[in-house]
From TrEMBL:
GO terms for biological process: D-galacturonate catabolic process; D-glucuronate catabolic process; pectin catabolic process. The keyword Isomerase applies. The keyword rRNA processing does not apply. The gene is kduI. Its cofactor is Zn(2+). Belongs to the KduI family. Binds 1 zinc ion per subunit. Pathway: Glycan metabolism; pectin degradation; 2-dehydro-3-deoxy-D-gluconate from pectin: step 4/5. SUPFAM superfamilies: RmlC-like cupins. It catalyses: 5-dehydro-4-deoxy-D-glucuronate = 3-deoxy-D-glycero-2,5-hexodiulosonate. Catalyzes the isomerization of 5-dehydro-4-deoxy-D-glucuronate to 3-deoxy-D-glycero-2,5-hexodiulosonate. It is an enzyme of class 5 (isomerase). GO terms for molecular function: 4-deoxy-L-threo-5-hexosulose-uronate ketol-isomerase activity; zinc ion binding. This is 4-deoxy-L-threo-5-hexosulose-uronate ketol-isomerase.
Length: 280
């Protein structure tokens, strides 16, 4: 089979307080998203959020359903967001071909049956990063190019958090049920993302770190604001953030990350900010 998946159960903040490094990484870190000609998925019980990666090199790869969904096909009761972080590729949705260049996205609505990923060049294959959530309504499939996104400049060099945030799959850009996805790029000379940190108890989130230079790392911070933990992360790795947890990181170099959210609402600004001096 070209699909591999694992399930991750939800953890309480009381339990996570006692985790050692290995337990913390086993529960929340997603290390091996991209393998040649395979579909790798992690099914989280936080909001039934699926994180995945597809790296088509020598052949196309289909989006196959997995047993936890108990569905005839993957998107029978789900919606899907795709951002290409590799070379140019195509996503075929029920016979319609969408070409995605580097950092272009595609939203695929509930009910589409046949989803196939391919690369235009085997020498520079596409790398499709996937997020999927349950859906209650079928919305149209839509491509989001780099000129279609909403851009926000945040932070400053003085606080080492100057960054550019791009909203790709949000309800002001595309009709969605609950999935939200975007990309944030840290500027040269800065290191922090999402600082001041926040939680949003109405939604969970997944961060996918990429464009981390060779030999560099990102230290991702999680946990309740008064009980934080950290996970050291490498290029092309993702991390699950529970609704009760902050999600912030600092790199030894500048980098980019894709954020994906799901939960109670579609209000991007719905967050409870933690004052920096109050973090523990």
């Amino acid at each position: 089979m070209s699909v591999s998946y694992e399930s991750r159960y939800a953890s309480s903040p009381q339990g996570v307080k006692g985790y050692d490094t290995t337990q913390l990484r086993d529960e929340f870190l997603i290390e091996n998203l991209f393998e040649a000609d395979k579909l790798n998925l992690v099914y989280s019980h936080y909001d039934r959020f699926i994180t995945g990666g597809v790296l088509p090199v020598s052949k196309s790869v289909a989006l196959e359903t997995i047993d936890p969904l108990k569905a005839e096909f993957f998107l029978q009761r789900r919606e899907l967001g795709i951002i290409n972080v590799g070379g140019t590729g195509t996503v075929t949705v029920d016979g319609t071909v969408y070409e995605l260049n580097h950092k272009e996205a595609l939203y695929v609505g509930q009910g589409n049956k046949d989803i196939v990923f391919a690369s235009v060049s085997n020498d520079n294959p596409a790398m499709f990063y996937l997020n999927s959530t349950p859906a209650h309504k079928a919305y149209p499939t839509k491509k989001i190019g780099t000129d279609d996104v909403e851009v926000i400049e945040l932070g400053s060099p003085e606080t080492a958090n100057a960054r550019t945030l791009r909203k790709y799959i949000v309800n002001s850009v595309v009709d969605v049920c609950q999935l939200q996805m975007g990309m944030t790029s840290i500027k040269v000379g800065s290191s922090w993302n999402t600082m001041p940190a926040h939680v949003h108890d109405r939604r969970m989130e997944v961060y996918f770190y990429f464009e981390v230079p060779e030999g560099q790392s990102v230290c991702h911070f999680m946990g309740q604001p008064q009980e934080t933990r950290h996970i050291w992360m490498q290029n092309n790795q993702a991390v699950i953030s529970p609704p009760w947890s902050i999600h912030s990181g600092s790199g030894t170099s500048n980098y980019s990350f894709i954020w994906g959210m799901a939960g109670e609402n579609l209000d991007y600004g719905d967050m409870d900010v933690s004052a920096i001096p109050d973090l523990r």
